[in-house]
Structures are given as structure tokens and as C-alpha cells.
Amino acid sequence: MGLEKVMRPRSVAVVGASKLETKRGYQTIRSLLNEKYEGQIYPINPKETNILGIHCYKDISEIQEPVDVALIATPAATVPKILEECGQKGVAGAVILAGGFRETGHAGRQLENAMVAVARRHNIRLIGPNTSGMMNLVDNLNLVGMRDVPKGDIALLSQSGNMALSIITEAKLKSRKGLSYYVGVGNEADIRFHEYLEFFREDPHTRAIIMYVEGMREGRAFLQQAYLTTQGKPIILLKSGRSVTGKRSAGSHTGSLAGMSEVAMGAFKRAGIIVIENSDELFPAAETLSSCPPIRNNKVAILADGGGHATIAADILTDFGIELPTLEEKTQRNLRKILPAAAAVTNPVDVAGGTDSDPSLFADCARIILNDPQVGGLLLVGLFGGYGIRFAESLSLKEEDAAHQMGKISAKRNKPIVIHSLFNSEKPHSLNLCRYYNLPVYDSLDVASKCIAVLAEYGNYLKSYHAKTNFVFKTGVKAKPEGRKIISNALNEGRQGLLEHEAKRLFKLHGAPVAEARLATTADEAAAMAAEIDAPVAMKIVSPQILHKSDAGGVIVNVQGKSKVRQAFSRLVENAARFDDNAEIKGVLVEPMAATGIEIIIGTKIDEQFGPVIMYGLGGIMVEILKDVSFRVLPISRFTAKAMIEDTKSAPLLRGVRGTPPYDQKTLVNLMLLVSDMVESYPEIEEMDLNPIILHEKGATIVDARIILKGQQKDE
Predict the structure, then answer these.
(1) Minimum mean pLDDT range among 50-54, 213-217, 625-629, 670-674
(2) Between the CA of residue 194 and those of 8, 200, 227, 327, 715, what are the distances in Å?
(3) Confidence of residue 715 (pLDDT cuts 50, 70, 90)
(4) Would you state the torsion angle of the CA atoms of residues 447, 448, 450, 454, taken in this order, to the nearest 10 degrees?
(5) How do residues 395-407 score in pLDDT, each as one tens digit?
(6) Domains of the chain by residue range
(7) How far apart are CA 230 and CA 468, in angstroms?
(8) Residue 223: is its pLDDT beyond 60?
(9) How far apart are CA 565 and CA 663, in angstroms?
(10) Predicted confidence band at 698 (pLDDT cuts at 50, 70, 90)?
(11) Which CATH class is domain 598-709?
């Protein structure tokens, strides 16, 4: 069921209405009246007849007219019964304020499940529980009770009422922007993050979406919806729970588990979401993205009235990966015509005192710079807005004229201008004019730099989103009948996973470059197999109970000669029995030693929020020591596989260093895509490790393969 009636109700019942000013049941009714909500308001309290001049009902069944939404401001234990009454009335949605549900433990989880069961039986959509409420400022619907919330075109989804208050306060004090909606998402007992995104994606009053997230219940559905949303509207997200302590705090507050940070952050960015790490940048980034056109070429110019700020801004933008192109010679000539000889005109542009007597020159410089085809956006840093304060009051008019001109230039060229001003807190009229023209202004150089950087990040995404996955995961797409048989045999035998030769056989069925491995059940068989190979071999124990063969002394390499092979076979069997005297020994694998190359790992696992994910990095023992790995949510595209390789510090090794030839990255990318296909094709796979894969100058060899199946106890 859609959220139109829930988010834009024409009537609201306040269950738990009160005459006490400290109670939410009073504050909500007061807000609805003060803000002139045009829908019907129905206070419900069996002990009152009238609250704030509105007739009060004993229960919701007394109301004769339809009710779209019920705000339930009563204790947690009462909620299921109240929802039953709402269901009988035909209420479309409910906002559950109370805590004491899933976030408190087993008993709270049972209560939440009972509440959801009632709601689903009656088709009631739930916001919360454990929420600060919901506001629809388009229709003057304030179910939070917060006063003087500025209206605008930014929607806010938050799992923290205090974070929401912080953002709203910042908007009120420092911006011309405001909110279209606010939803305290709470425990996501019913309505999930992705459903809100779907509503805001279609909402004509919303241009950007802010999210504060501690955890989410349906991560993959969220990514799928975010991918669709960010093509038209930016999403700006701050995720807490990156540290171990932060995860514990997030879990205690919402009952949602914070996912693996590497997976979550990578997935968000891949869906086009602008991920913010500092809370003081969250609203400014949203304000900028909702006001300004994105930068399509990742190139920014800096215009400054002092070298210090210009240098710092250049360093910050470079750290963000923003290009600072040298301006074209024509652009430099035109700047020299209007600026002093001492001015720097390459990029950053430093006016060198040229604006001290006439700050309107800033507009002339901006026009010239934004006419340069290389420049995608402009960051103005320094004193603009303060010339009339710092030097002479008469300069204020020139600054105001410059603000008018820069606003028109930005609109005409469709290129953003972001302003850093030391005098922002003084609130001069010139800076208010800049905001009127959708030129964001900030008193922090770091924040201003971040804001123009997110315009470039969003522009980069819009150029390449067609090459990214939509996160839709299909199962069984390329499965082979023999592959299904291998897996079903293992499950029928009650095994944790596939034996190594079974895993390799499964990969070989799909065309993977697997080391040829044969299973010997006796020492003589092993010797005969090695003789056929006629080269040094690797020998590995095969046992369902021994998944980590090295820990059991179950691997011997570089074995050659029949007597040596027989000795190695006996030693492997003895080591396995000593490691686990109950282990069932299936035999010993005999395979040729792989050619030299660089060791790689490719693995997959099931993330608790986002489902199947893939890992890539340096393999062998290096994966444990260096942890130089990257993660992505599956499925992946060729574009994403290449990005995963480049995300690692070891990427230059693959390209060849100090005269060594490069390794075969094309084969590596194909293998990563094959692994993605395998997980899609066989939904029984819980985890897999290909470690090591030996990557050669030409080709690759999977030396070891491990596959864990769902529904079985995993080896820790």
C-alpha cells in the first residue's frame, strides 16, 4: 500500500490527547492549530470532553467521519489494542511514539511483532515505533510538536530525534532552506527506509533527501530504491555505527544492527548517495545539492582575495579528488585586464587587493572564469560580504550588485558558485542576496569546500550511473544441472560445505581457470597421479570436518618423486587424524604446482543488511596481514569490478612496477564477474573463498576454493 494517505492525511486522531503542556498529546494538537492544518483533528482521551477548544472523544470508534492517520501517544503495552480499534475504524496509518519495543530486547521484540501483526491484518501502515513523529510541512501537518520549523524542499529521514532537531535548528539559523517533510523512522517495524524514498522520489515538493541512519532492516531494497531516486534527486546520508562502540550505541537505540562499514559505505556511494562523515556538513551539503546544478566535469576554479584561503581550499579540494585546471590563456588574459599586475590568474585566482576599492570586480571575475569551458564550478573564498563592514560602508552597495550579477551568471552558465565568507555571521544583505539566487554561503572554509566537492561527486555519478548495477539480485540465472547436483549431494549428506575438489569442479563447469586436481584414496594412487603430471605437485587433505587445511597440517607443496609422494600422503593422513580423530578422510588431492604470479583473494559472504557481498584483495597470508581489500554488494558489473581493484593500495602492483610486466587484469575482472554469477546462480551458497588465486602475466589459476552452504553450521 502506498504512503500517500499516511504522509498527506486529511484527518488525524491524537490517541492520548492531553491538557498537560508537557505531554505530546497536547503539543501535537497545539502545533496543528497554530500552523493551521486544514484537515480534521480528533483528540481521544476518555477522561476529557474538550482539549484546546476541540471536542474530545472517548475512543476512536466514536468518531463518525473517516480517519486517515492516528498519532498514538500512549505506553507501548497499549499499542496493539489501540491498533485493533484503528483497524475496525479503517485508519490507514499510525505514528507510534512509544519506545519499549524491539530496541529493549526479547520481550520488546515480541510486543513489536504482535503490534505489526495487528497492523498487517488491518492494512495499517506504521511509522515507528520509538519515533519522535512525523511532519509534513507542505500541508502544515506537524505531528512532532517542534515549533517554527522552516519550510522548504528538503525531506529529512532520521533515526534520532536529537539529530533531527540539530538539522532543523541549523536550517532555521543559517539558511534560507527548510524542510518539506520530516520522518522519525524509529525501528522500521513496518514502513522501511526504501518506501519513504519511493514516496519522496515522486513528491513534487522535495528536491533533496537527508538521511541519518543507524541501521536498516531491508538494505538491498533500500539500495534498489536509492539507485532509482538519485538519478533525479540527491540523497545525502550520515551513517553512525562505524566504530564498535558506535555500533553498540546504535543497536541499543533502534534495535537495528549497524552493518559492516566497508560494505555499507561502498554500497551507498554506488547507489549515488552522497555519504557525509561529519555531522556539521550534513545540512550544508543537502542545501547545496538542492540549490545548485551538479558539476559535470569534476573541475573547479577558486577565486580568492587572499593567498592563505586559496591555498587551503586548493589542498582540501585536491584531497577530495577535485581537479583544479589551469585556466585557458584567453581566460587569463581577460582576468589580467581587470586585475592588478600582482594578481594570480592561473587557478586559484587571487585578486591581490584588486577588489579592495571595488568588490563588484568579483562578479566580473566570476563571469570570465565560468566562461572557461574547463571550469565546472566556482568556489569564492575570503572576505566577500564584509567589504562594507571591513573597509567602507559605501562598498556594501557594490557587494550587493556583485551578488545580483553572480546569481545571474551562475543561472545563465548552469554552473554553481559556492561562497565562503568570514563575515557570514554578520548577515550582510549581500550574502542574503547570494542565498536568494541559490548561491550557498558558509563561514567555514572546510564546509564550503565540502559543498562544492559534493556537487562534483554527484555530477560524476550522474555521468556514470548507467554503468552501475541496480542491485537487483536474480537467482538461478546461469546454474548448471551438474552444479546443482554437486550442491544437493553435499546438503543431502548434511555437510557444512563442498569439498575442495567439488568446489573446483563447480567453478570449472562455469569456465573458471581451476588447477587440475585429482582425488587419491591411497598412497599408490597419489604416486601414480603425480607421475602422470611429471612435475612438482601440491597435495592437500580432503575431509568434510577440516575446512582450514593449513591449520591441520593438511597441505604439502613442491612434492616430486613417487617415494616422496607416498610419504607426503601418509603424513597428511596422520596430521589430519591428529588434528581431529573423528575426521572422515576422503583422500588427498594431487595437483600440479601453479606457475608463479601474484596471490589474489576473491570471496563472498552474506551481509546482514545488504545480502550477498563480494571481497577482492591481495591473497595468501597477505589478506590477514595487510587487509588490503575492497567490498561491493552483489551483483557487480565490469565497471564495478575494475573499481574494486583500483580501490586497493596494491592496485599499482598489478600494473607492473620497476620494469616488471603487468598482470592479467582482464582475466581477473572476468573471474570476479564469474564469482558474481555463481552467487546469483546458486542461492544455497553462504560464503566462498578463492584463496589464493595465482594471477599471471597471462591468465590465472584458482589454487584453493572453499564454499560454505546455507543452513549448515559455519566454521569460525
Answers:
(1) 625-629
(2) 18, 10, 10, 43, 34
(3) very low
(4) 130
(5) 999 999 999 999 9
(6) 1-142, 148-291, 293-467, 516-592, 598-709
(7) 12
(8) yes
(9) 32
(10) very high
(11) alpha beta
- In this structure, what DSSP letter does residue 378 have? E
* Closest listed residue to residue 380, CA positions, set 305, 323, 444: 305
Amino acid at 586: K
Answer whether residue 350 shows pLDDT above 70: yes
- Strand, coil or helix: 114: helix
Q: Which three cell numbers stand for residue 341?
A: 599586475
pTM, entire model:
0.89
Query: What type of residue sits at position 251?
Result: G
Q: How many CB atoms lie within 10 A of CB 494?
A: 9
Using DSSP, state whether 315 is helix, strand or coil: helix
DSSP string, 575-611: HHHHH-TT----EEEEEEPPPS-EEEEEEEEEETTTE
Distance, CA of 115 to CA of 99 (rounded, Å): 13
C-alpha cell recorded at residue 519: 582425488
Q: How far is CA 53 from the centre of its chain?
A: 47
Q: Give domain 148-291's CATH superfamily.
A: Succinyl-CoA synthetase domains (3.40.50.261)
559 — phi, psi (to 5°)? Answer: -95, 135
Would you tell me how many other CB atoms lie within 10 Å of the CB of residue 86?
26
Domain 1-142 matches domain 148-291 at the CATH topology level: yes
Q: Which residue, among 339, 352, 347, has the nearest Cα to 376 in the 3D structure?
A: 347
| Fold of the domain built from segment(s) 516-592 | Dna Ligase; domain 1 (3.30.1490)
CB 616 within 8 A of CB 445: no
